[in-house]
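Team,

Forwarding the record for the chain on the shared tracking sheet. I've put the sequence and predicted structure together so nobody has to dig through attachments.
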Amino acid sequence: MTNNNPTHHAPAEKTTTNIFDLANYIITVSYQQKHEINHTKLQNLLYYAQAYHLIQNNHQPLFEEPIEAWPNCPLIPDLYFEIRKYPLQKLPLLPQATNNPLSKEQQKTLDFIINQFKHKTPKELNRQVCQEDPWEDRFGNYDISLNRITNQDLIDYFTPRFPRYFY
């Protein structure tokens, strides 16, 4: 049954950002501020950004894409498959981005995380991430279907450690 009422309008579509928008923001700011960034550090910054955002924003995620524990670090598979071809090269801006503007909350989270970890090399940051329970607990599962690091894993691990990590 169709609605022939000329005043009836479909709900407005919500514009959203994706993981590539967040990645492009980190890449751009890192280059502007002359901080070292590569594909591994980008993944780790997004991992910490998700944890920070969950805790600071009433358990609301920064992004919806899953984080998985892979052999070398936590990865966001959708992002990994696009940036893996740049293991040591300068990361380009990613064309998969929607180019929708980030919200103030998203920018605040990413700016904080970039600033918090700007002096860590990719190797140092990766070593830190791989010593933490969310990665260790999930990577230890040899069943690949169990390697997802959930938002609840991040909340449970980082909430009691919040001041040490994020201040």
